[in-house]
Design a protein that fits this description.
Strand content of chain B: under 5%
Shape of chain B: globular
Helix content of chain B: over 70%
Largest sheet of chain B: none
Largest interface: A-B, 33 and 28 residues
Distance between the termini of chain B: 21 Å
Number of domains of chain A: 1
Distance between the termini of chain A: 27 Å
Radius of gyration of chain B: 20 Å
Largest sheet of chain A: none
Number of domains of chain B: 1
Oligomer: heterodimer
Order of helices and strands of chain B: HHHHHH
Structural class of chain B: mainly alpha
Structural class of chain A: mainly alpha
Number of helices of chain B: 6
């Protein structure tokens, strides 16, 4: 990879993380929201031991998907509102470096939220089966797919009149394979299902990740151009 | 005033005749299915509309790619027309399927792979319309619309494969006669012919609708330009 590309990507990641660790706006919102969603699920689904057996993966993924849109919206809105996006676009770097920078910092936020919510979930429900490396790997793969297409679509939705409300409507129908495949794979891991039941959704998840990282990389330029 | 092309008028007449013939075949000429009875006749239109709905979805993605390559507004109009027509036909397919499913499966709806994929595709279309409605600049609207149809076209097959991991009960009628327990059936020659006629009829109707919709978009743009011109004077 060309060194200036890597440098530009790293610079954007550094900028996003530094801004976030100073203001802590985004992470606080995403975390509080995640805990609230789990709390609502607790009463809506009556998460006793039998129910949890089946729905733990689903509850966690729904929480992360909702918290994820919150983060994606905010991270792109900040760029747009204060005219930072124009500044970034004027910089003499490859546009896809901007995409990768934004996507990786979005992914970092999502992973931080997951890293805090998982132990919390384990604490609330005495659920230690979620701490398996296979489960974490599925979580990582799912987050990568979700964030790559999410970053692309948030760059799109932020330029429309309806902005925040549009992102989930655009994102969920496109990202639904990620959510279903992740829920299937991680549910199978938690319940010690056979290898085929884990591998099949996992393969589709990897296929989705590869296709959508490539496509987002190709289309980002066409979305931010004026 | 732009004259309606003569070929379009011919196509209008042709599609009315074709749909008429298909209706006649489906309702009167095709034999009544032994197990399911009269309700099975909905099958011909269900498959016909489903076929063109899928055709429209693929066409929209191809139009999206062509727009991004050529940047010609014609492809944008073409893509929008394909999505609108396809959205309508998907809805008709779902409704007709429900009418059949109620007696055959004893439920209006089930989360089967085809049904769920159709519902998600319909949601992609709604998102597409909302996206377009939120953008004023026509060039940007065309660009974003094109990208979104391509994303939809890429994710739909994966959605289909993922949902298939759940159990499916939708019958595969063509090329799989062993699925009778799910409501599948062997087709006689008459049934096959009727299905074939319905498929052709709906394809003609589809082309006719797309053409009308593209022409309508062109006229709309003309009206906009005329309005701006009069306001400017």
């Amino acid at each position: 990879m060309n060194p200036s590309f890597l440098k530009a990507t790293l610079a954007i990641i550094h900028k996003d993380l530094a801004a976030e660790f100073r203001s802590r706006e985004l992470l606080t919102a995403m975390l509080t929201f995640s805990v609230l969603v789990i709390l609502i699920f607790n009463f809506a689904l009556d998460l006793n031991i039998d129910v949890r057996q089946k729905v733990t993966a689903g509850v966690l993924w729904t929480t992360f998907a909702f918290a994820g849109t919150l983060g994606l919206n905010r991270s792109m809105a900040v760029e747009k509102d204060r005219g930072c996006m124009d500044g970034l676009l004027l910089a003499p770097v490859d546009r896809s470096a901007i995409f990768f920078g934004k996507a990786i910092s979005n992914l970092a936020f999502m992973l931080i939220v997951e890293a805090i919510v998982l132990p919390l979930y384990a604490f609330f429900y005495n659920e230690t089966r979620i701490f398996q490396w296979e489960f974490i790997a599925v979580l990582l793969l799912g987050s990568i797919g979700y964030i790559s297409v999410g970053t692309l679509l948030s760059a799109m939705s932020v330029q429309t009149r309806t902005r925040e409300i549009l992102l989930p409507i655009l994102l969920f129908p496109i990202a639904i394979p990620v959510l279903i495949a992740s829920v299937l794979a991680s549910g199978a891991i938690i319940n010690d299902a056979g290898l085929p039941q884990i591998i099949t959704p996992l393969n589709l998840l990897i296929v989705y990740d590869v296709i959508f990282i490539a496509v987002s990389f190709m289309f980002f330029d066409a979305i931010v151009e004026e | 005033m732009q004259q309606k092309p003569i070929l379009l008028t011919i196509l209008d007449v042709l599609s009315i005749i074709a749909i008429g013939i298909a209706t006649y075949f489906a309702l009167f000429l095709a034999p009544t299915e032994l197990v399911m009875g009269e309700v099975q006749r909905v099958f011909y239109f269900h498959v016909g509309t489903g076929w063109v709905a899928l055709l429209g979805f693929v066409t929209a993605s191809i139009a999206g790619i062509l727009y991004l390559i050529t940047k010609s507004m014609t492809w944008d109009r073409f893509g929008l027309a394909a999505v609108e027509v396809s959205a309508m036909f998907f809805l008709i397919t779902i409704v007709l399927g429900s009418i059949w499913a109620r007696p055959a499966w004893n439920t209006w709806w089930t989360w089967d792979v085809r049904l769920t994929s159709a519902a998600i595709t319909e949601l992609i279309f709604i998102a597409y319309f909302m996206l377009r409605a939120g953008i004023e600049d026509p060039e940007k609207r065309a660009r974003f619309g094109a990208i979104y149809t391509i994303l939809g076209g890429l994710s739909a097959p994966i959605t289909f494969m993922v949902i298939r991991l759940f159990r499916s009960i939708h019958p595969v009628v063509v090329g799989n006669p062993s699925a009778e327990a799910q409501g599948g059936f062997d087709m006689t020659v008459d049934m096959r012919n009727t299905l074939f006629i319905a498929l052709i009829a709906f394809t003609i109707l589809f082309i006719d609708f797309i053409w009308h919709r593209i022409r309508l978009s062109g006229l709309q743009e003309k009206v906009e330009q005329l309005k701006l011109k009069t306001l400017g004077e």
